[in-house]
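Weekly modeling sync, notes
Attendees: S.R. (lead), two postdocs, one rotation student

Agenda item 3: backlog of single-chain predictions. S.R. asked that every request posted to the team notebook include the full sequence so nobody has to chase files. The rotation student volunteered to paste the first one in as an example of the format we agreed on. Action items at the bottom.

Example entry:
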Amino acid sequence: MPLTPAIEEPQIHESAQGPRVTPAASRTAQTPRPVPGPRPAAAPRPGRPGPVPPAPPAQRAGQATPGPVPAAPAAPSVSAAVPQVQLIPASAEGALDAAEEAVDLLLDTGRAPGDILVITTGDPHPWAAHELSFGEASYWAQHDAGDDVFYADAAHVQRAAGRPVVVFAANGGPAGTTAAALPVAFARAGALLVVCGDAKQINSVLGAGV
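Predicted structure, as returned to the notebook:
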């Protein structure tokens, strides 16, 4: 699903349609939209009666009146489980800063800190490096508490639990790290995946079936 990213910065939106890559539009994004639910049935107009079901045919002598035919179960909708993908073009050196701006924007527009997981492919986020200095037990305890933004590098992404929003910073790292970690990040995102990195590289991974 390759895109040619815009020069301006992104508007982060959530929707049930996905996956799709939308280019950045501006640094000032709108409040993420909630996933719309099913539309209610239209009410009859005032003064006009609603549709009247046809009367059943007269019962023949000696024949039982057939019961109602059960409706076929509706097929489950999978679109609500597929996150929207938002691409923010950035160099490997600038991807982490772009991810930080995306997190700030999400928080400013009403997202709870515990809704957000940030994944890095290169150098860990300074918060993660600091917390890991106290040991992995303390670090993962904060992850399990789920009350604040959590930062994990690609090496730990398999252990991280899913959250409504995942921000993915392709900030370098060994070759193939982005290609391996991005599908996992997509699977962890409940409603929105924000990807900060080289547009050509990201689109090549997304186009491969993420």
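Discussion: group reviewed the output briefly. Confidence is low (pLDDT under 50) at residues 6-10, 14-49, 58-62, 64-80.
Action items: rotation student to repeat for the remaining queue; S.R. to check formatting next week.
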